[in-house]
Design brief:
50% of the residues lie in helices and 17% in strands. By secondary structure, the chain is an alpha+beta fold. The chain has one domain. Strands 1-4-3-2 form a four-stranded antiparallel β-sheet. The radius of gyration is 18 Å and the shape is globular. Bound molecules: heme C.
Length: 203
């Protein structure tokens, strides 16, 4: 069997610095298919983040942190579900430290990529266009996995910053909803997490 992968995927696999199982049949359509899937994942993560960013800004202006809370708490998980259903993929948001362990906890692959994102940032790369693509074989089957980094913006610290940046009313609400909240003490420019997309691939 011949290996036939797109240059982009090869670059992503090499930058991951690990052995990635990428095996496709020799038909010329396959590389194009992978590239199309990567492009589609990029478009979806871009649309997702843009939707969150603009809704967060609007709600914050209209009603402050109390109103903006529902963007991270309701709009984000709902949009992730809608994208998942529409595309037939798994679309999620994961964190380097999580507030909602049920939804935001990265799996082993995602944890590794988050660490690599931190290392890439230390070498000067910006989170704004930082992505990773790999084809992985897991017990559940083969899939194309994609992650897009999410950096911390100044407007995030009112709920994800240090104790002196989170207003008491917000802290009280967070404490009531998230007894195991670890998504604090972030500073603007830190890595907050990633959009993670998993597309099942046929054998
Ligand atoms: C008004 C409060 C508030 C603001 C502002 C806010 N968040 Fe959140 N964030 C939350 C809450 C609440 C959750 C938990 C959501 C849930 O229940 O799934 C959360 C969860 C997350 C998660 C999922 C991982 C986890 O910890 O559970 C990410 C990623 C995230 N926020 C990123 C951001 C980014 C980036 C910004 C700034 C653009 C931001 N948030 C601004 C309240 C906020």
């Amino acid at each position: 069997m011949k290996t036939n992968i797109s240059p982009l995927l090869m670059a992503a696999a090499l930058s991951a610095g690990s052995v990635v199982s990428v095996t496709f049949a020799a038909s010329p359509g396959d590389a194009a298919d992978v590239q199309a899937r990567v492009d589609a994942a990029k478009a979806t993560s871009g649309a997702f983040l843009q939707q969150l960013g603009s809704t967060m800004k609007r709600e914050m202006q209209a009603g402050g942190p109390a109103a903006a809370m529902k963007v991270c708490r309701e709009v984000a998980p709902r949009a992730a579900n809608e994208f998942s259903l529409e595309k037939g993929w798994k679309v999620t948001r994961v964190g380097t430290r999580v507030r909602n362990p049920m939804l935001g906890t990265p799996d082993a692959w995602e944890q590794r990529v988050l660490l690599e994102f931190e290392q890439r940032a230390a070498q000067g790369e910006k989170f704004d266009d930082m992505t990773q693509v790999e084809v992985v074989e897991e017990p559940s089957g083969k899939s194309l996995r994609f992650m897009k980094a999410i950096g911390v913006a100044p407007q995030c610290v009112v709920c994800h910053g240090g104790a002196d940046q989170i207003p008491d009313s917000v802290r009280a609400e967070l404490d009531a909803m998230y007894p195991h909240d670890r998504a604090v003490n972030y500073r603007p420019g830190d890595l907050r997490g990633a959009v993670s997309i998993k597309q099942p691939l046929d054998d």
